[in-house]
Write a structure and sequence with these properties.
Order of helices and strands: HHH
Shape: flat
Oligomer: single chain
Helix content: 40-55%
Structural class: mainly alpha
Distance between the termini: 19 Å
Largest sheet: none
Strand content: under 5%
């Protein structure tokens, strides 16, 4: 989970390491390629689907695929 762009973020670095050493399924959750904007932190978290409920729903969806 990243509160910024998915591409080129920490998740990409971790995914690269894991794919070379421990090939496991990986799901990225963060902000897709878009221009940044200003606003209240909680508003932006909700706008980009990074709030508690969105995380919970994503985790449930991933667990069902395992």
């Amino acid at each position: 989970l990243e509160e910024h762009q998915i591409a080129g973020g920490m998740g990409s670095t971790i995914a690269e390491f894991l794919s070379e050493n421990y090939p496991i399924p990986i799901h990225f959750m963060g902000i897709n390629d878009t221009f940044g904007e200003s606003g209240e932190a909680e508003e932006l978290i909700q706008k980009y689907g990074l709030g508690k409920e969105a995380i919970k729903q994503t985790v449930k969806k991933i667990i069902k695929t395992l």
